[in-house]
Amino acid sequence: MKSFFSASALTLGLLLATPQTLAQTPAADRQQIDAIVETFRTAIIKKDTASFMGLFLHEGITWTGVFTDRAVEREYANRPDPALPRPPKYFNSSPRKFIESIVKATKPRAETFDNVRIDSDGDVAQVWFDYSFLADGKVQNWGKESWQMVRTEAGWKIAAVVWSMEDDPALAPSRASK
Fold first, then answer.
1. Which of 6, 18, 83, 119 is least surrounded by CB atoms within 10 angstroms?
2. 42 inside domain
3. Pick from 141, 95, 148: which is nearest to 124 by CA?
4. How far apart are CA 102 and CA 159, in angstroms?
5. Taking a C-beta distance cutoff of 8 angstroms, is the pair 64, 162 a contact?
6. Contact indicator for 165, 146 with CB cutoff of 8 Å
């Protein structure tokens, strides 16, 4: 019985001795990850390829968009030839292709982020938010976006980006670029 109490006391002592470290980590993570979200947003507006690409673990990360069922059905219904195959439900690309398309665009591009949620244990993080993508100030598509992040020696990096996409103008949220 004595060894049980000794082990319990030791465990409790260790837990009580470290709460400051544990309490500071989430706030520090949140601040660093919020800065990455802001850099992502401003790099799109400024067409800043170097800043944008610096956010990622590497160029070959998962970069996948998923169209809503409604968007796929609308696209299929609007095809001039019904014999054409159904539009794909999802597509893969890369962060570089995305930022290159932004840089080439003649009209301003922006992305808004709302309801940003971050969950982290200090080494991995999940970032989840509502987004709207704007072209020339008009909402083009919107949905939910998810980032998987890892903390590296160089700081937090985005390891995967996955998002849903709706593009029906009749359903567009009224959002303006920030």
1. 83
2. yes
3. 148
4. 21
5. yes
6. no
Say which residues have a Cβ less than 8 Å from residue 50's Cβ, sequence separation at least 6: none
Beta strands in the chain (DSSP E): 62-67, 90-92, 109-120, 124-135, 138-152, 155-165
| 16 inside domain | no
Indicate the range of 58-62, 74-78, 91-95, 131-135 predicted with least confidence: 74-78
CATH of residue 136: 3.10.450.50
Question: Can you tell me the distance from the alpha carbon of 78 to that of 43, in angstroms, rounded to the nearest whole number?
Answer: 34
Domain boundaries, position 67: 21-171
**19: pLDDT confidence band, cut at 50, 70 and 90?**
very low
List 56's β-bridge partners, or say none: 158
Full-model pTM = 0.80
What separation in angstroms does the CA of 40 have from each of 13, 31, 71? Answer: 42, 14, 26
Domain contains 5: no
Q: 81 in a domain, yes or no?
A: yes
Total domains, the chain: 1
